[in-house]
Amino acid sequence: MSELALLKLGGSLITDKTQPYTPRLEVMDDLARQIKSALQARPDLRLIIGHGAGSFGHVPARAYRTRDGLPPRATPLTHRERDESEGNYWKGFAEVWYQASALNWLVTQALHKAGISALSLSPASSVIASNGQVMIWEMTPLQMALSAGIVPVIHGDVVFDEVRGGTILSTEDLFSHLTHALRPDRILLAGLEEGVWADFPARTKKIERITPASFDEVSAGVGKAAGADVTGGMESKVRQMLELVQTSPGLTVQIFSGAEAGSLARALSGELVGTLVTA
Fold first, then answer.
1. Which top CATH class is 3-277?
2. What is the mean pLDDT of residues 22-41?
3. Mean pLDDT of 13-20
4. Using CA atoms, how far apart are residues 8 and 19, in angstroms rounded to an integer?
5. How confident is the model at residue 232 (pLDDT cuts 50, 70, 90)?
6. Is-contact 8 47, C-beta < 8 A?
7. Vertex 239: Cα angle to 205 and 198 (nearest 5)
């Protein structure tokens, strides 16, 4: 029986989020080789890859506060740091798209170098949001790619929004919609951290398993994001994944370090690495 998995390559893994516009090309190449190995070992594995914007998209996104919304249909905003002219913020919208797309090209290039038939599908051209939530997603190309044995590649991106004018959807936002539409078996979130820590940033107590019942006990120590990140840190990701496992019977989520040698290949093969999120 075939298995469908959603894999995120975190922005902190594939870029240096403390240094603007700094890709980790060798890391991308290694991850791509591990993915290729896993796909060869598991012909039944269907994969959708998503990746974060890292130090590319998050830099202009923070400067222009793009996720909050844009004129003329933006909700009232109070913490604008730049001038309020409409053109300025739409310029930022386009800049976020450009930088996220530049990183996406590097990721897709690494996948092709490893021999993976990968196809980039930009959310900016297929998704319409409503107040920060996916409202419409033309998913036919993605579904046809899966049927053809192609690996779709999506990423955190700007999208037009009926309420905010425009916004940014994270990879987790996109995975949330895909989970309800496609019913994947697993979600794998590969970042820098070995898992979810109960005492971040001390990192001495890794949580082996998180459930909706147990999360409140440890949430205070889970922590936020390091470096530029406009879509939330670890706590936000865990909460989003908990919502998904509660509404999707059988779904499991693994949060783990993609920087550890061979960890991604092991996770794709079905081995439990990092922290498991279940209902």
1. alpha beta
2. 98
3. 94
4. 21
5. low
6. no
7. 10
What pTM value is reported for the model?
0.91
Distance CA 238, CA 251 (A): 14
DSSP annotation string for the chain: --EEEEEEE-HHHHB-TTSTT-B-HHHHHHHHHHHHHHHHH-TTEEEEEEE--HHHHHHHHHHHTGGG--SSSPPP-----S---HHHHHHHHHHHHHHHHHHHHHHHHHHHHTT--EEE--GGGTEEEETTEEEEE--HHHHHHHHTT-EEEEE-EEEEETTTEEEEE-HHHHHHHHHHHH--SEEEEEESSSSEETTTTT---EESEE-HHHHHHHHHHH---SSS-SS--HHHHHHHHHHHHHHSTT-EEEEEESSSTTHHHHHHHT---SEEE--
Domain ranges of the chain: 3-277
Residue 69 pLDDT:
87
Mutual orientation of helices 212-222 and 234-247 as an angle, nearest 10°? 170
Nearest 5°: CA angle at 278, between 28 and 271?
50
User: What pLDDT is stored for residue 222 in this prediction?
Assistant: 79
Cβ-contact 48, 4 below 8 angstroms: yes
- Tell me the CA distances in angstroms from 238 to 182, 189, 196, 279, one per residue in order: 21, 10, 8, 12
Is 150 a residue whose pLDDT tops 50? yes
Residues 6+ apart with CB under 8 A from 125: none
CA atoms of 207 and 196, how far apart (whole Å): 6
Q: Checking phi first, is residue 187 left (phi over 0); if not, alpha (psi -120 to 50) or beta?
A: beta
Find the distance separating the first CA and the last CA of the chain, reported in whole Å. 23
